[in-house]
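Quick one:
INPUT:
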């Protein structure tokens, strides 16, 4: 009876922001993982854990990574995100004597390390060693961001992890909306752009971010959180998660990213094909959900196109066949340059030293890796990037949430075939950071499902809905 009264204190805790009960619950999960049912009484009376202020600061600077020009050899500018990651790496190193690194799922850091090592190796033969060295540093920053986020989310409850994901999605979306509304201080942050140029105007024709860049970049950052948030809000009856997930989906649609819409359709077909169908069951409900998401994106994009006059005025060229022809010509030229350096390529991000149309990118991450590192190493790096959804998809039978996360990452890696978001320096770091957030969420959900029914009820909320759903799935 005493235990039952103690556990009742932890029901109905859900809120928009972490509260003291959330912190008690996080400490409960940590103790339960080692004590089991016998340690419930001690776990319930655990002292509150610390707030994750450092994590919140990282999410804030990642949402608005303002760059500062500096006169330092090898570096032309530095962002506040770079500065924070230097401090974060110091905390990781100082904690090593008492706290081992949390790699999340070990296969993910291994996959992240492949392009990092290959980029470092390419310094030897690179046409632009400074650019290649900077590219390697960006990969290292991404891995540091991943490790820091996973460590900060360790032993938190899944609802609290979702709260951090919600905040980050909102922190990324709000500056984009303020830019669209022409709010002073949120203009495109690119001194090289003229206000009369087409590139500058394109920031206002499609929903874009003043720091992260134009529409495709914003879509790549936001969409990875849409399926997990919608899934969590639907299965746990969490209004805030559903609301932020829906708002993020609308924001992605307002970017009018054709590549992402196509990626959602392809990923839906791939995901449906990977599922093991039980006897006398149909894939139609699942395919219907994927189609509903794609149709919703298309409807929202159409509405934005009709309601925003600059979009109708300046976007007609993107809907013509000319844009497709330009992309094909770019691929043909990339193929020709690959034939010139088929074994080792030009070095990581070294094409900027060439006066050609490929000085920036080819709008295809996988082809870009072949240009950077040659066919053998480029294919290896491309496979490592394409395999990032696999660790999540393999766990979907253990925890259903892994399926939603795996689908989100699958859409991202497919979109890299049509866009150059992964080649952006800050965007690459944010992508690895986002993987850390999703790993933290999935680890928390799996820990919640592994505990006994009374403790799951204390952690999950009223009637232990999450634990019962997990047991039913198993």
């Amino acid at each position: 009876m005493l235990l039952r009264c103690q556990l009742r204190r932890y029901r109905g805790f859900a809120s928009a922001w972490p509260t003291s009960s959330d912190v008690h619950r996080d400490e409960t999960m940590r103790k339960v993982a080692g004590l089991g049912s016998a340690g419930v009484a001690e776990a319930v009376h655990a002292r509150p854990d610390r707030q994750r202020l450092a994590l919140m600061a990282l999410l804030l600077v990642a949402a608005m990574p303002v760059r500062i020009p500096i006169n330092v050899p090898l570096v032309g500018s530095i962002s506040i995100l770079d500065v924070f990651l230097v401090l974060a790496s110091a905390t990781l190193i100082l904690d090593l004597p008492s706290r081992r690194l949390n790699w999340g799922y070990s296969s993910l850091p291994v996959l992240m390390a492949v392009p990092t090592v290959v980029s470092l190796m390419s310094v030897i033969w690179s046409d632009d060693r400074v650019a290649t060295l900077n590219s390697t540093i960006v990969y290292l920053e991404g891995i540091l961001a991943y490790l820091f986020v996973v460590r900060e989310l360790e032993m938190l409850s899944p609802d609290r992890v979702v709260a951090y994901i919600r905040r980050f999605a909102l922190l990324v979306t709000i500056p984009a909306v303020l830019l669209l509304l022409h709010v002073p201080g949120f203009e495109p942050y690119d001194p090289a752009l003229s206000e009369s140029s087409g590139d500058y105007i394109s920031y206002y024709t499609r929903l874009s971010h003043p720091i992260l860049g134009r529409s495709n970049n914003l879509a790549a950052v936001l969409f990875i959180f849409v399926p997990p948030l919608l899934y969590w809000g639907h299965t746990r009856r969490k209004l805030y998660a559903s609301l932020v997930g829906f708002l993020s989906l609308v924001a992605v649609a307002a970017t009018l990213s054709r590549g992402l819409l196509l990626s959602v359709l392809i990923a839906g077909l791939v995901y449906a094909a990977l599922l093991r169908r039980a006897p006398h069951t149909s894939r139609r409900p699942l395919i219907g959900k994927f189609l509903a998401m794609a149709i919703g994106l298309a409807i929202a994009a159409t509405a934005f196109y009709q309601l925003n006059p600059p979009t109708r005025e300046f976007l007609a060229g993107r809907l013509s066949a000319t844009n497709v022809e330009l992309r094909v010509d770019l691929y043909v030229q990339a193929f020709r340059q690959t034939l010139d350096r088929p074994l080792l390529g030009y070095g990581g991000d070294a094409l900027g030293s060439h006066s050609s149309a490929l000085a920036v990118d080819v709008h295809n991450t996988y082809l870009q890796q072949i240009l950077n590192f040659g066919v053998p190493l480029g294919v290896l790096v491309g496979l490592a990037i394409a395999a990032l959804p696999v660790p999540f998809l393999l766990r979907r039978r253990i925890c259903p949430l892994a399926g939603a996360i795996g689908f989100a990452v699958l859409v991202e890696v497919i979109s890299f075939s049509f866009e150059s978001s992964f080649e952006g320096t800050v965007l690459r770091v944010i992508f690895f950071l986002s993987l850390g957030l999703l790993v933290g969420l999935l680890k928390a959900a799996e820990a919640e499902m592994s505990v006994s029914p009374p403790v799951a009820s204390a952690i999950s909320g009223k009637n232990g809905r999450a634990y019962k759903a997990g047991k039913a799935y198993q």
